[in-house]
C-alpha cells in the first residue's frame, strides 16, 4: 500500500487543494470502515487506489454519516456501500434495512386484498391470537388449513365458517390467517360482505358488476366477512353471493366465512327470507349446500374483545 501522506501531498499540489481538504481527506482515509474495506480487498485494488478513488472515499464517508445522523442521502432510503470496480473504489447505493423492511411489508400487503375491511386487520397475527380454551379449536383449525393449503395449494381444502357473537375475534382470526398466508407467499382477498353488497348495487348503474364480481369470484383464497349482518335482497343473494359460491365450489377454491349467525341460523333466519319478505327455503338450502361444501363450521365463543 502506498504511503497516504505522500499521496495526499502530491494530489493536493497537483489539484491546488487547500488544508481544509486535507483535513477532511485525512479523516476519510483513516475511517475504520474504509481502511478495513481496503485491507480486505487489497489484492483486487490498484497500487494508487487512494489517489484515484479519493472522491469516492469522501463520498462514501459523508453520505454514510448523513444516514447515521438520520439525514437523507440523495437517494432516500438508500445507503452507500463501498465496492471494487476496475481495481478502484466506487460507491453503490443499497436499500437500508428500514427500506428493505418497508418493501417486504408492502409486498405482504399486496398479497392481502381487503375490500371495505377495517384498517387494523393489517396487524392481526396468529401469534397474538389468544388461545384460551374458547378459541383453541378455531385457532387449531386455522393453522391446520394453512399447513394443508401450503402443502398442496392446487387441491381442494375445506375452509372455515367462523360463527359467534359480536367481538369474539372472527374477523381478527380471518385477517391473521390471510397475513400468515401472505408471509408464506399466498394471496387472499377479504371482503366485508354487507359493504360489498352495497358496492355491487351501486355498480349496476355503471355496468361494473361483472368485473367486480369476477375479481371476488376468482380470488385464490376468499374470506367473506360478516355474512348475514345486513338483510340481503334477492338479487344480492342469488346473483352475487350465489354466483360467487357456485363458481368457487366448482373450482374448489378455498372460501372462508364469518358470521354472527350459526349455519342453521343463516339458512333459516337470513337466506330464506328476502328483503321483500318472500320465504324461499329451497334457495336458502341450495346456498347452504355450497357454503357447507366450502367451509366447516366452528363456533367461537368468548368475551367481546372490542374496546367498549
Ligand atoms: P368479530 O369479527 O368476531 O366481531 P373482531 O375480530 O372484530 O370480532 O374482534 C374485535 C376486536 O378485538 C378487534 O378490535 C380485534 O382487533 C380485537 N381482537 C379480537 N381477537 C383478538 C385477539 N385474539 N387478540 C387480540 N385482539 C383481538
Ligand atoms: Mg367481524
UniProtKB/TrEMBL annotation:
It holds the Pfam family IstB_IS21. SUPFAM superfamilies: P-loop containing nucleoside triphosphate hydrolases (SSF52540). Residues 104-265 form the IstB-like ATP-binding domain. Transmembrane segments: none annotated. Residues 1-93 form the Primosomal DnaI N-terminal domain. Gene3D superfamilies: P-loop containing nucleotide triphosphate hydrolases. NCBIfam families: PRK08939.1. This is Primosomal protein DnaI. The gene is dnaI.
